[in-house]
Amino acid sequence: MTLSKIAFKVNITPAEALEQVKKYQVSAGSDLIHEELYDLGEDRAIGTLVFQKYYFRAGNRAALVVIADNLKGYSEVRAIATGSSQSVLFNFDWGAADDYSASVREALKAHVLEE
After folding, report:
1. How far is 47 from 92, CA to CA, in rounded Å?
2. What is the per-residue pLDDT across 58-106, written as a single tens digit (0 to 9) for each?
3. What is the band of 2 on the pLDDT scale with cuts at 50, 70, 90?
4. Cβ distance 79 to 48 under 8 Å?
5. C-alpha distance from residue 87 to each of 1, 58, 61, 84, 99 (Å)
6. DSSP code string of 52-104
């Protein structure tokens, strides 16, 4: 099993970021497994999306967790992806985890400020 993590700042609210990621991932064939968004008051919020996707080309599954919050005075998005093959002998994801986490940045590319 492999793991890929990215984090970056965006110029939109956590709710807006999660909505854009959700639309992008669902349109790209990901299954939305879980979503939550908490309004913490004082213009602060935190939310999570969990997806899974099956990659036919490599015969593996990948999971993606997206967390967005603005608890530090700016909006930050974190994406954690993991993938594994179904092979008995090898446990490679053939880049699925890296591709999956990078797709979050792609979904929000118009709003990314810095990493």
Report:
1. 30
2. 567 789 999 999 999 999 999 999 876 555 444 445 566 788 889 999 9
3. confident
4. no
5. 11, 10, 12, 9, 20
6. EEEETTTTEEEEEEEEEE-TTSSEEEEEEEEEEE--SS----TTHHHHHHHHH
